[in-house]
């Protein structure tokens, strides 16, 4: 697979930190600027209680510490299953394996009976994830409303089908790796959902692409890391970019994180908003349903940087003929 360490700089970049308790106009401008300039940012005073975060971290550790037989019944390599435990990536990776275990769960809105399809061990896992998913979705939808305010869209633009699918919550575990130079946690990829919210680990490993380099993320205590998914790039006709990122491993420390993903419904049409189109700004992207969009952008390969070498528009043009 080649030496991964050769592409990893030693420096750490400080992402923009946005305080959601400040004036709404100020916050909306900050979110828009961060989306244009870097594509990643951190949020504080976000409304997710510290208790909910600590409970989620504890439940995450407890789940991955369960005996293998307790997790085996939930294990599946079927990418089409909403609720499953698996190893590796949800992307098509050409047979490459990745140093990660993941519990992926779908959370309906409201959660209701959907939690009955989740693992029942550890004992409080279902209640903890229900609380966490509700709080993080509320934060995500507020971020989208603030983003709309900054862009001049109506503030409820993403309240319908564009942000209306079941929330996906992932519990991610990257064990200590005997040879990080040849084994990566997650391949370079852009998120296919609308908005990603990450409760990060204190152990480093998340990197994003910036000016042709892989940059380490240094999370703040109790902050969430936020990045925009590919559908947001399309909706804004390329004004915002979905930034490529990956996870690297280390030899000594396991790393756990929890992601919450706001996603369009399967039949939702992913297309540039009229507000971003004009005579001098024609559509840069094909309009496709989210189901097809998700499938088109499902490929990630070890060492491949699709965003660095190929624009999203060209990827869609080359693959849309296969729909």
Class by helix and strand content? alpha+beta
Largest sheet descriptor? 8 strands, mixed
Give the number of DSSP strands.
15
- Which runs of at least 5 residues are low in confidence (pLDDT < 50)? 1-11, 301-316, 318-323
Q: What is the number of helical segments per DSSP (H or I, 4+ residues)?
A: 8
Top keywords for this entry?
single chain, 323 residues, alpha+beta, 8-stranded mixed beta sheet, 5-stranded mixed beta sheet, 8 helices, 27% helix, disordered N terminus
Structural description of this entry:
It contains 8 helices and 15 strands. The relative contact order is 0.17. β2 (17-19), α1 (24-37) and β3 (40-44) form a beta-alpha-beta unit. The longest helix is centred in the middle third of the chain and has 27 residues, at 125-151. By secondary structure, the chain is of the alpha+beta class. It is globular. α1 (24-37) crosses α4 and α2 (50-64) crosses α4 (125-151). The chain has an 8-stranded mixed sheet.
Q: Secondary-structure blueprint of this entry?
A:
Layout: E1 12-13, E2 17-19, H1 24-37, E3 40-44, H2 50-64, H3 68-72, E4 84-87, E5 101-107, H4 125-151, E6 167-174, E7 186-189, E8 195-199, E9 206-210, E10 213-217, E11 224-228, H5 230-235, E12 245-247, E13 255-262, E14 269-270, E15 288-289, H6 290-296, H7 306-309, H8 312-319
Parallel strand pairs: 1-10, 2-3
Antiparallel strand pairs: 3-11, 4-5, 5-6, 6-13, 7-12, 8-11, 8-13, 9-10, 9-12, 14-15
């Amino acid at each position: 697979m080649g030496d991964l360490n050769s592409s990893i700089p030693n420096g750490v970049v400080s992402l923009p930190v946005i305080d959601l308790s400040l004036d709404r106009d100020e916050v909306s401008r900050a979110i828009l600027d961060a989306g244009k300039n870097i594509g990643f940012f951190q949020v504080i005073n976000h409304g997710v209680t510290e208790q909910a975060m600590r409970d989620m971290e504890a439940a995450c550790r407890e789940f991955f510490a369960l005996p293998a037989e307790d997790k085996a019944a939930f294990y599946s390599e079927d990418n089409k299953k909403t609720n499953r435990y698996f190893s590796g990536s949800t992307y098509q990776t050409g047979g490459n394996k990745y140093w990660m275990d993941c519990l992926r769960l779908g959370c309906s809105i409201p959660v209701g009976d959907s939690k009955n399809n989740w693992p029942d061990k550890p004992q409080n896992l279902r209640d903890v994830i229900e609380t966490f998913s509700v709080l993080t979705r509320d934060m995500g939808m507020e971020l989208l409303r603030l983003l709309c305010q900054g862009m001049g869209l109506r503030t409820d633009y993403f309240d319908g089908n564009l942000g209306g699918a079941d929330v996906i919550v992932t519990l991610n575990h990257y064990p200590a790796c005997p040879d990080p130079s040849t084994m990566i946690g997650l391949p370079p990829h852009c998120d296919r959902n609308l908005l990603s919210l990450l409760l990060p680990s204190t152990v480093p490993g998340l990197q994003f692409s910036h000016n042709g380099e892989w940059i380490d993320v240094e999370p703040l205590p109790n902050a969430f890391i936020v990045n925009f998914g590919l559908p947001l790039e399309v909706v804004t006709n390329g004004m915002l970019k979905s930034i490529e990122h990956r996870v690297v491993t280390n030899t000594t420390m396991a790393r756990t994180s929890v992601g919450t993903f706001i996603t369009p419904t399967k039949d939702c049409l992913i297309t540039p908003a009229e507000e971003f189109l004009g005579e001098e700004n024609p559509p840069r992207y094909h309009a496709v349903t989210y189901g097809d969009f998700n499938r088109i952008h499902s490929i990630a390969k070890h060492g491949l940087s699709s965003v660095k070498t190929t624009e999203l528009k060209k990827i869609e043009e080359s693959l849309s003929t296969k729909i």
